[in-house]
Each structure stands twice: as structure tokens, then as C-alpha cells.
Design goal:
The structure is a single chain. By secondary structure, the chain is an alpha+beta fold. The protein folds into five domains: 132 residues, Nuclear Transport Factor 2, Chain: A; 177 residues, 2-Layer Sandwich (Beta-Lactamase); 163 residues, Beta-Lactamase (2-Layer Sandwich); 168 residues, Beta-Lactamase (2-Layer Sandwich), CATH 3.30.450.40; 222 residues, Phosphatase 2c, domain 1. Helices cover 43% and strands 26% of the residues. It contains 24 helices and 34 strands. The strands form six sheets. A six-stranded mixed beta sheet has the order 2-1-6-5-4-3. It has a six-stranded antiparallel beta sheet with strand order 9-8-7-12-11-10, sandwiched between helices.
Length: 986
Amino acid sequence: MDKLKEKLLYETYERFQQTGMNIIPPSEIDTFVDKDVMGYGTTLDEKILSASGFLELVEKQKEQSKDIEMKFDSKPVLRRILEGENAAIFVNEVNISFQIDSETFKMFLRLTSILEYRENIWLVVHWHASKPEYEEGGEDTWHIEEHKAKTERLEKEVAEKTADLLVKNQELEIEAALERVRASAMAMNKPEDMLDVCRIISYQLESLGINNIRNVQTAIFEESNRIYTNFEYYSLHNKTFITDIDYSIHPKQTEFAKAMITSPNSFFTASFAGEELSAWIENQRKTSQFIDPFLEKAVSLNYYFHSVGPVALGMSSYSPLSPEGLKIFKRFRNVFELSYKRFQDIKQAEALAREAQIEAALEKVRSSALGMSNSQEVGNVTDKFFNEFTKLSVDLIGCSMVVIDEKEDIMELWRARSNVVIKPFERSVFKDSMKLLKRNMPEWFPKFYGALVERSGYLVKEMVENDRERFLNTMAEQYNYTNEEKIKLLEVMPKNIAAHFIFIKIGYLALISKEQLSEDDLSIARRFADVFNFAYTRFLDIKNAEVQAREAQIEVALERVRARTMAMQKSSELAVTAAHLFSQLNELGIHPYRCNIAIISEKSATCQLWSTTNSGNVIPTSSSIPLYEHPVLIEMYEGWKEKKKNHVIKLVDENRLEWTKYIRKYVHFQEYKPEQLDEIKIKNEPAIFSNLHFKQGFFVIHTVEELSDVNLNTTQRFANVFEQTYTRFLDLERAEAQNKLIQAENERKTRELEEARELQLAMLPKNVPDLPNLEISVYMKTATEVGGDYYDFHVGDDNVLTGVIGDATGHGMKAGTIVTITKSMFNSLAPDQNILETFFKISKVIKDMKFRQLSMCLLMFKIDGNILSLSSAAMPPALIYRDRKKIVEEIELSGMPLGSMINFPYKLVETKVHPGDTILLMSDGFTELIDDKKFMYGFERTKSEFLLVGNKKTEEILEYLKKSASNWLNERVPDDDITFVVIKVK
């Protein structure tokens, strides 16, 4: 034994003796006496079985020896270290002397102690103090008779103590085993760890003497599907399995499930032997369970299950358990309950984490949809879906979004760009596609088409060999694949595939995988499909927006050409106008080689031609060209006289070269000079002349490729605008005096702008209504001198409050004019109870004003008692803080701005408001605030902030929102007006 350990042994024994001598306080015995110490004193009642008993004995001795001076002389008799050096026996002889009332007493004791070494400390586990009864033997040296009697008593005591120790020892072993199971349960961090719990239980049962264990298992029941999931550990094979069992197949399993589910404390047992065992093994084989080869030689198979609610702990053995074994196994049931609770916690945590992961993926797809800037980006949404869906551990080969417009007989398909994709986007005729599918897959087509008509649920088709080939050939034929593309499709697609079709209102989501997806995966896919519904709605909005944006772009370009023409002071400036036309067409994606403006003189049959260089620069001088000399000019002239629409002349080869040599006599094009003329290049480069007519002549747009009908129509609009403005120019040229009128007009517009600014500020009410049942506060911060935001109120004779909040599109004088019109209409129409009729009238007036792109976003409301009625024309949703529920309710009404479409079907919403409720109306300038990191404040943040202060006074709410906006901007200047109207119901 090493010195340190030996030293610790002697120190421990010395402290033990000193406790009995009242030298060390009894409170320290926990550090050197085992909690289950066994000891015997010098009297019959001094039987100690615990540290607390020992403590009680020591304290009693100390109390009895109070005020008595005692002397101890302890001499060692025996020191024996047992094998393994973790146990020792010490024997001492102790002489004790003390004096009472001047009389001295002496006592002789023999003290035997056993110490054990545990966890780096020595503990006294047993001690025995004896006081010899005889000093000498006398004639009966052996005290035989008395010895016999004592021996009998001692043997009886020893037998009793031994039995008690055995019971206690077994109890300790059982508790230790249970504690190991508890530790295993607490260590679980994923559901599969339930297998480790089963393994630990099996080990512990074997350590407690339960033999012939076949397996330990847990069964988790799912009543809705009539299955239970088995987590099994087979001890002889050292194998684990997780298996789903349909308990409705075999009557014994049905009986077992019913017993376990019925009561959380029920017990079930079943035994199989002989033919029953053979039949049971065959049932396991048919249901794809693990076949235990040891059962072939087993006499019997015995099952024991304890219920713990929706789960059962069970074991099976090759021989029946003894009653004692059953008792021990039952105790593991109670500990297993902790394992199942841990299992449930983990499953719940996993479910929450999974849901968070799914929501994050959905949000990315949703964000991708919201980020679309043109219709081509629908494919990006499909790619995002594919990437996010596969990140969720779903093994997809490919996916497609299919949109069906049966009215237009169109079927559009966007494929995620995965390894198996040949064409990312396709369009086909819907009816033809269905006929093709019916012809190639007649057995399956009725199921598919029936589900497609219903537009709900999903359909799964596993395809191998012929089915797969027919399906892929159908796809290739449907979308006009070339033979090479079809061969590639057949090569890249796996031999076995499962096609999943999730039907939605606008079509379906198609998913291709190697194996059929689980119900959970299909449920997740359904959620993504619903997001696609949203994405496609967004796509339609974008298509409309693209048309409007293109129109706005064209209008801007037309306005610039119009302005350029209007700015001409003399005819020679047509050269600049031609260059301006060249520039504007380029910006619209129409790329001319050269732009020409021909002003015709019918009297002389000539035209004055103004041209640009091939880079769009100005050629400052014009050329007078006869219209009767060359066939090209004759055709142009005749086309102008006949007003031919989209009149195009194409010159190639020799005709192209001959024309070039002719026209250079009149127009001094740099690249057509004799020394620079590249005849081969000219013959190889076609000249396309698009002739766009106006009253005084025509544009000749020279391109190397033919313009589309759409671009021809767009260019014709430039000709029409030019006609209007050029006519105006001619009028101005004939009357120079009109220049003064124009100057006067500009001065008038300047005054109007200033007046509009003052008028805009005057449009707002000086005071908010003071009503007994409502508390109202307003706030506006303009971004320009003449802003577009506006609010107003009207209180009827019946105390009905009518109000509006609006935002004119754009800023400046025209926006101020729109606000003025709206206020005027509101003042006259506010008493009208019909909000929708009011919208119609305002919209019609604005539309009739023909302000082009200008319109009025407006939200109008009425509060009559506790009824709130409102409608919205493209304004942000109204928010209502519901004081009773402490929530913010959003009322979103989609609609176009007033003046953009007269008969738009606006909707009216009515809801009740109660004391404490607060209504927040705002312009979009607040939600669209941009911080220095280019992040938008956003509507969700607005709702969250409003929820925090919805129960406060209206002025406090305004101050809070203003401060929130200021913090967000961080001293940046807002790009748009910010307006709030806050109304609290008293």
C-alpha cells in the first residue's frame, strides 16, 4: 500500500477512536463513518446500523460522561490489510478509568473495527466493542454450558443480521441498477437514444440475476394509425431496431395494444410455445420484423409489458420469469417513466426545431417571391423552393411549378435548375397536353385528371421501366424536346422514380424523387405549394406592374421627345430632335443603326431629311432629297400617302449597296465616303427601314434587324407625339409672338407652384374633432414643399365621424392639385353614408382630369357609435388595438388608387370598436422608412411597436411612433411624407 493511502488509513482510525473518547465533535463523523455503518457496543441494546445511529450513541455517551474526567489508554493488538488493499481490520485493547465521588472505576474493552477504501477515502463500516465477562476460567475453564447458550444466541443474531445484510445488499444493487437507467434517461438528446435506455435496462436486469433475456423494448402507440413504434435491444445479438408495427394484424398484438392503452398502470403477459411459437415467428417474418434465430431452439417465448400511458416497457425471455424477477422488472417500469418523459421532451424540442427550420425555409421562398422584379424571376422562386426543400433533408431529384389557365388553354411550367433539368421554362397547350398524357398513360390518366379537376390533395405515382419511360417520353413530347434533349432526359433521370403531384388552385407542384416521400414531407411540400400560390399572385401583380412600368418608361421617353421638339426655336434643330429620338429608343431597348426625320413637301415632291450618325450623334445639316428618283424613296413616299401601317422596307446584298451609293450623294455619312466604303460589309449587313408616318412626313428608323410589332407600335407613338409637337412648332414658327405667351405661361406655373404649396398646407384641418366618445390625435411630416399626404375629418349632425387619410402619387404641384380636388370632393360628399359611392365619384373626377399617371391613394372611414366602417384605395392596412384581448388586428383592403380605374370593385369592411380600442391609420411613408443599412422599417415592426403602446393616450402613441421613426432613420431625411391618424374609443 502506498504511503499516502496508509497514512490516511491510520488517520481515519485515529479520528474514529477520538470520537468515542469525546475528543472530536460528533458532527464530523460523516467524513470517516459509512452511512450504513454496523456496530455493536458493550450492551445488548447497542446495535448500530447507520451513521445516524452511531451519532446518537456517541452523543448519548457524551451526555452520560458530562462532568466526568475520563482517561483512555488504547493499545493496538491487530493491524491487518485485506487482499486488494481496500479493506482493513484493526483491533485495540482499551483501558478506561474515571472517578465518581472520589471513587475510581476501571473498564477494559476490546475494540474491533473494519474499514473500507472508497472514492479516495477510508470509512469505518463495522465496529465491535466487547467487555470480557470473566477474568479467568476457574474449574469450568471453557464455560461450556454458558458458551453454548451464548453461541446459540450469537448464531441466531448472526443469521438474522446476515439475512438483513443480504436483503439490504440486494436492495442496494437494485437501486444502483435503477440509478444507471435514470442516468441513461437523463443523457438522452435524440429519440434514437431510447435504444440505449433499452440496452442499459437489459444489462441491469442481467446483473440482478434475471437470465434468458431475449430483448428489452419500448412500444410507443399511435392510435390514429393503429401502429406502435418498437425500440428494441436484443442482448444475445447485441442489435437494436426501430420498427413500426400494425397492431391490428394479429389478435395477440391487438389484445396487447388495448391493454396498454386502456390503463397507464396495466400489465400484460403472453407466452408462446410449440405450434403457437412457430405461428408467431411466421407472423413476424410476414410483417418484416427481426427474426431471432435463437427461437428455433427455445422451448418458449415469454412477453412481459408494463403500461406507462401511451407507451409500454416490455421484455421477452426464453423462459418464464420468477415472481422475484417480475417484481424487479416492475421497479424498472417506474424508472422508465422518466425515460419516456425525456423522450417526449426531446421529440417536442425536435418538432419545434423542425418547425422553426421549415418556417425559415418558407420565409426564404416567400422573400424570394417578394423580391421579384420581373416575370422571369418566377424560375428563381422555383430554384429557391428546391434548394430550401432539399435542405430539410428531403431527397428530391427535381421539382416543377405548373400553372394552368384553362380559359386561355395554356399550361406554363417552371423547373428548378437541378442536375436533371433540360429546359427550365416551358409553355404548352393544356388540352393537347392532357390528350397526350391520356394516350401514353391511359390507366393512370383518370386518377391524375380527376385530382387535377378537384385541385386539392395530392397524387403519388411510383414509376419503373415502362411507366417511367412513357412518363418521360410524354414530358419530352409535350414540351417539344429535340431528340438529343429527350435522350439526355432519359439518361439523367434515375431508373426508378416517384412522381408527386400536389394540387393547388392555380395548378400543381410536381416533385420527383427516387423513393416515395413520407406523409410529413408531403405535408411540408403542401405548405411550400401554398407559398407558391402567394408567389404566383405576386407574379401576376408584377406582370401588371411591368406593363405599367413599361408604359411609364415609354411615356417618359415620349415626354422627352415631346419636350425636345417643343423646345425647338428653328427648323435646323430637327437634327437634335433626331439624335434625341435615337437616344430615347436606345433607352427603351430599341437599338437603331440610324434615325432619320423626313419632312415632306408635296408641292415639290421632295423631303428635307435630318439624320444621325450610326452612333446617334447629330449631323447638323439637312438634305433635300427628291422623292421620285429612287425606288426606295418612291416606295416610302407612296407608303406615306397611303398611310400604310408598320411600313417596312428591307434591303440586302446588291440592293443594299446600290442604295448606299445613291443616298451618299445627298447625306454626307462619314462611313459612306468613297475612301471608307466597305462594300462587302455593306452587302452582308441588311438595312431595315421602318417608316412611321405623321402628318408632315415620316420617321425612318434604320436597323440591322426587323423590329417586332410591339416595338413598331411603340415607335409609331413617337411619330404621333412628334406630329403633335411639330405641328405646335410650326404654329410657333408662324407666330413668334407666342414665345411671350409661353414665357407668361411659365411665370403663371411658377406662381401656381407657390400657391399650391400654400394650398397644400391649408388643406389640413386646423383642429381635430372634439367628440365625447373619441380621443383623436394627428401628425404629418412632409418630405417636399408640396407633399402628397392628406387627412381630413367631418362630424355630422348625428355625431357620426367621417375621416380620410390619403397619399397622392408623386409630389409637387400636380400632387397638390390632386389633394385639392380630393379635399373639395370630401367636403361635399362626407355626409353621404355610402363610402363606396364616394370613392366612385372622387375616382371619376380625378380620372376625367387626365393627369396621366397621377392618382390618389385614400382610406375613408366612418365611426357611428361603436361601428367602424372603412374602405381603402391602395392605402396601408388599418390597425386596431383591441384592449380586451391585448392584440393588434390588421384590416387589409386591396384596391387601386382613385383615378386609375373608375369602376374598380372596392370593398367595405365593418367592425365593432369598444372602449379602450385604438385605431391607427397611416401613410406608407412610415412603413417604408429606410435606415442607413438600407433596411425597411416594415409593417410587421409597425404592428409590434403599436402593440406596445396601444393602451396609452393618442398623443403618447404618436410620440412613441415618432421617436421610433427617428431612431430608425438615425438623422436621415425621409424620402416620403409620414402621416398618422390615431383614434381611441373612450
